Input
Amino acid sequence: RGYDDGGLVGASSAPAAVLAARPGMAPELAGKAGELRAVRGPFVSGDDLSIALGLRSDLVTALADVTVYPA
Output
């Protein structure tokens, strides 16, 4: 049986190419996210991702609907 996840991706585990396909996430930002994860570990929240990447507030809002973070 299939499960429709609605396009959610794990911001702390998805490959950069998958992150780059999210609304407003340019390939450069997605690559930077991957580099930061390798150095500092997983992102724990949207705020954590936002601060680490210096994201605009409108992008944070758009990504909140399509990303998940480890518990």
